[in-house]
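Appendix B. Raw example, untouched.
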Amino acid sequence: MVWASPHLYLFEKELVPQPGSDGPSLTRVARLRAGSTEWERLPDSEIIGSAPWYAEGDLLVNPRLGGADGGQGDWGRTYPNGGVLNTATKTWTSLPKASSESSTGVVGTRRGLIYGGYEGLLLDLASMTWIDMPGIPSDGSADDDSYTSRTVIPAGRNAVAFGGARWSKAEGELLGDAWIWRSG
């Protein structure tokens, strides 16, 4: 669910046999106006991802790149993970083309950002283009890829990453560093 005044939006998916469906379980949405008791069903999407959602103005954005084609079930085409719902026109559009499938979130024009990790592509809603959120700089050790559990906090259109742990075989080391990512 996501709140975008004056509505609460509820996302869900039709239950289909897994595995072996002849098509994907597409994301559906309904909204409830504040003070109302009646849900309004909006047009179904062509996306298979149901979260995360970022609300800004008339847009609800699921920034997940990539998709699925049903594997051996073969749905006939690839269905995208994410997309954009314009709540004013009740229409769905595709995410802009990206240089990779490693999306991590959205940078909004008003309310800051949402993120799903500490590196990857962020959809900048001001320009509707993808910008790169580079990874935290490496210290050059052989165990660089074993960082875990960093806390990432949005700070307006920027992000702060703090701490975490670095693992080397069975030994863990708590980290006390902090990094700031600035969206520009």
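End of appendix B.
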